[in-house]
C-alpha cells in the first residue's frame, strides 16, 4: 500500500526515498488512461515525448512539438487526481537559452496544467535547471540514454558502460541535484552505476532499463500493456497483451457488421414498441 498523501507533491518523493518506499511512474497521453493509472495508485504520470513513437507513429522523439506536448498534457491533467503530472520538454525547447526554456516551461505549467517538467541532459543543462527551479518550476532531470540525443549517441544503446563514462554520468547527476532537480530519471545504464548514483543523491532516482536499485521505476505504458508492437525493449515486462485483445475485439465487431449480426433489431427500444412515423398524405 502507498502511504503518500492523496495528492502527490514533489517533496513527497524525497520522503519516499528516505522511507525506502519505491516510487511508481508510468507514461500517459490521454485522460482516460490517466484516470485508470491514477486509480491504480501510480505516483507520477509522465506525459512523455515518447508520444511521438506510440501515438504519432514517428521513429524518434525529435519531431515532437511543444504544441503536441501541451495538447496531451492538458488531457492527462484532466484525468489525474492523485498522481503528480510531469511533462517532457521537447527537443530544442530548452537548449537555446535558459530564457527560452523558462518561457516554454511556463506554458506547460500555465496552459498544460503540469506540476513539473522533465529535461534531458546533465551538466550542459544544469544552469537551465537552476533558472527554472529558482523561478519556482519543479524540474525532473534525465541522464543516461537520452532519446532526444539519439543521433549524437549513435542509437538507442546502453550508456555509462566503462569507468570514465560512469564517472561522467555521476557528475551529471550531482550537478542536476545541485541545480535543484527534485528527481532524476536514469535510463539504460548498468545496474551497478545506477546503484552508485542512487546512493550518492539525496533526491530520488527513477530507473528505466537501469536495474532494481533505483528509488522508483518508469515504463512506457504502451510497452507495459502490450499495445506497441513495433519494438519492445529487453528490460520491459509486459503485464498484459492488450494489443491482441483489441485486435480480436475489433475483428469480431467487423465480422458482426459484415454478416448483419450487429446491431440486432431487438437492441432498439427494449422498453417499448418502436415509434413509427405516420405516412404523409397529399
Q: Spans with pLDDT under 50 lasting ≥5 residues?
A: none
Q: Mean pLDDT, nearest integer?
A: 93
Number of helices: 11
Largest sheet: 8 strands, parallel, barrel
Shape: globular
Structural class by SSE content: alpha/beta
Percentage of residues in strands: 5-15%
Helix content: 25-40%
Rg, Cα atoms, Å: 23 Å
Order of helices and strands: HEHEHHEHEHEHHEHEEHH
Termini separation (Å)? 73 Å
Strand order of the largest sheet: 1-2-3-4-5-6-7-8
**How many beta-strand elements?**
8
What does the model show?
The longest helix has 17 residues, at 163-179. This protein has helices at 10-19, 31-39, 51-54, 66-79, 98-110, 126-134, 150-153, 163-179, 191-200, 221-224, 242-258, and strands spanning 23-27, 44-47, 84-88, 116-118, 139-144, 183-187, 205-208, 216-219. It contains eleven helices and eight strands. By secondary structure, it is an alpha/beta fold. Helix 5 (98-110) crosses helix 6 (126-134), helix 6 runs parallel beside helix 8 (163-179) and helix 8 (163-179) packs parallel to helix 9 (191-200). The chain has an eight-stranded parallel β-barrel, surrounded by seven helices.
Task: Summarize this structure as a short list of keywords or feature phrases.
282 residues; alpha/beta; eight-stranded parallel barrel; 11 helices
Summary, kept brief:
With 282 residues, the chain is α/β, with parallel strands linked by helices. 39% of the residues lie in helices and 13% in strands.
Amino acid at each position: 500500500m502507498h502511504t503518500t498523501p492523496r495528492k502527490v507533491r514533489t517533496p513527497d518523493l524525497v520522503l519516499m526515498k528516505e522511507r525506502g518506499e519505491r516510487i511508481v511512474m508510468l507514461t500517459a497521453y490521454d485522460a482516460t488512461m490517466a484516470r485508470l493509472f491514477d486509480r491504480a495508485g501510480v505516483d507520477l504520470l509522465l506525459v512523455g515525448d515518447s508520444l511521438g513513437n506510440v501515438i504519432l507513429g514517428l521513429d524518434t522523439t525529435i519531431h515532437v512539438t511543444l504544441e503536441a506536448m501541451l495538447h496531451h498534457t492538458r488531457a492527462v491533467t484532466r484525468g489525474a487526481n492523485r498522481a503528480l503530472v510531469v511533462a517532457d520538454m521537447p527537443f530544442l525547447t530548452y537548449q537555446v537559452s535558459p530564457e527560452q526554456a523558462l518561457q516554454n516551461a511556463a506554458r506547460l505549467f500555465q496552459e498544460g496544467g503540469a506540476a513539473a517538467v522533465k529535461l534531458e541532459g546533465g551538466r550542459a543543462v544544469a544552469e537551465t535547471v537552476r533558472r527554472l527551479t529558482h523561478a519556482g518550476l519543479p524540474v525532473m532531470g534525465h541522464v543516461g540514454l537520452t532519446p532526444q540525443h539519439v543521433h549524437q549517441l549513435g542509437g538507442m544503446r546502453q550508456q555509462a558502460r566503462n569507468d570514465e563514462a560512469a564517472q561522467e554520468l555521476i557528475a551529471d547527476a550531482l550537478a542536476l541535484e545541485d541545480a535543484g532537480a527534485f528527481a532524476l530519471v536514469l535510463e539504460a545504464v548498468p545496474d551497478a552505476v545506477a546503484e552508485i548514483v542512487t546512493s550518492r543523491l539525496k533526491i530520488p532516482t527513477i530507473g528505466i532499463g537501469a536495474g532494481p536499485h533505483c528509488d522508483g521505476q518508469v515504463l512506457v505504458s504502451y510497452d507495459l500493456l502490450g499495445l506497441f508492437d513495433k519494438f519492445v525493449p529487453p528490460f520491459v515486462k509486459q503485464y498484459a497483451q492488450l494489443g491482441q485483445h483489441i485486435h480480436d475485439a475489433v475483428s469480431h465487431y467487423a465480422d458482426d457488421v459484415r454478416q448483419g449480426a450487429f446491431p440486432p433489431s431487438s437492441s432498439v427500444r427494449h422498453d417499448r414498441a418502436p415509434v413509427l412515423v405516420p405516412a404523409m398524405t397529399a
